[in-house]
Amino acid sequence: MKKQTKINYILTLISVFCIGATIPTLIGSSHVNEQHSAKSEVPYCVTSPTVPTQVTFDGTTIDLRRYDRRERMDREMMAFTYMHSTTMLLIKRANRYFPIVEPILKANGIPDDFKYLMVIESNLNNIARSPAGAAGLWQFMPATGREFGLEVNDNVDERYNIEKATVAACKYFKQAYDKYGDWLTVSAAYNAGQARISSQLDKQLASHAMDLWLVEETSRYMFRLLAAKEILSNPQRYGFLLKREHLYPAIPYKKVTVSTSIDNLSDFAKQQGITYAQLRDANPWLRDTSLKNKTSKTYVLHIPTQEGMYYNPQKTVAYNKNWVID
């Protein structure tokens, strides 16, 4: 780069930075009178999101005016609002996963709002695994997964199978609802366990989990659920402006049914025209380099189509129109 050109480049960068730094001040001064103008030492300002006076969960109105509820909701809304990259990633991933999960919830008689429980459990990361061993979108522990019909071993782990894990979660929700008759209490039990929630309801003479004194994680859990619904239902209100092409599209698959073992999944993937990595990404429930299948069980493998493996922003569809600005 020539010396003069380099100098001009540096001066341009400095000018852009200075203009960018002054814009918030100029904008602020045009809307706020001098007596009440902000005196920020940084070139941007943050503000607390407004906590609604009430929200709904499965059509039930939840009053948030009481100070303890309001402040707990406030904490979670601020967390989602200012965890910028995480929340933006949630919206992008929701465009891919909500269309899969919502019909399963509906078919099993579970409120649609429970998709937000999946959001707070795993950040919509289907290969998520907690230090305690919970796995998948719904973060099932191994024993709980098996209890509700999932195969969990070193070769196959259906906690990572979106459809099957969602069906298992529905079974849990229905069982807990039969006990409590309240969906938010069901959500608390999903986090803390039914035994603990039942015990605390009895000890504290309470009828609703929101009124219990619980460990911080569970105490926050129900409000994180409500905040996730609020933010993902109205992302633009909280400053998240995405275009349609920013969202993650559904990946087209063809389904291959197998009832035998597969000795080498790399060879199998090559025969299907994809790589082993792509096979594992599309079927994260496969946990080894082979599928043993000693009981001749029937499995359905997803094989991404060639078209589906290449991103085309022009064909991306926004599942929820509230997620995008165009």
TrEMBL record:
<feature type="domain" description="Transglycosylase SLT">
    <location>
        <begin position="111"/>
        <end position="204"/>
    </location>
</feature>
<dbReference type="Pfam" id="PF01464">
    <property type="entry name" value="SLT"/>
</dbReference>
<protein>
    <submittedName>
        <fullName>Lytic transglycosylase domain-containing protein</fullName>
    </submittedName>
</protein>
<keyword id="KW-0472">Membrane</keyword>
<keyword id="KW-1133">Transmembrane helix</keyword>
<keyword id="KW-0812">Transmembrane</keyword>
<dbReference type="InterPro" id="IPR008258">
    <property type="entry name" value="Transglycosylase_SLT_dom_1"/>
</dbReference>
<comment type="similarity">
    <text>Belongs to the transglycosylase Slt family.</text>
</comment>
<feature type="transmembrane region" description="Helical">
    <location>
        <begin position="7"/>
        <end position="27"/>
    </location>
</feature>
<dbReference type="InterPro" id="IPR023346">
    <property type="entry name" value="Lysozyme-like_dom_sf"/>
</dbReference>
